[in-house]
Amino acid sequence: MRRHLTELSALAAASGATDVPDSYTELARGATRRALASHRINDSTAQNLLDALDSATGESRAERNTQ
Hints:
mainly alpha, 4 helices, 0% strand
């Protein structure tokens, strides 16, 4: 995910498609929640994915939990 976000951020900067990284992040969060709800991944894996997204976007777990 980090590599995807890096590439998408570069694309956004070059093309002006500034909504792309945020859209990708929201899609990744949603996919993680759906995978957890359907028991395709466990709590630990979901947390690792969400933490990686937070790390890549600079968002904290507390901020994420208020959304």
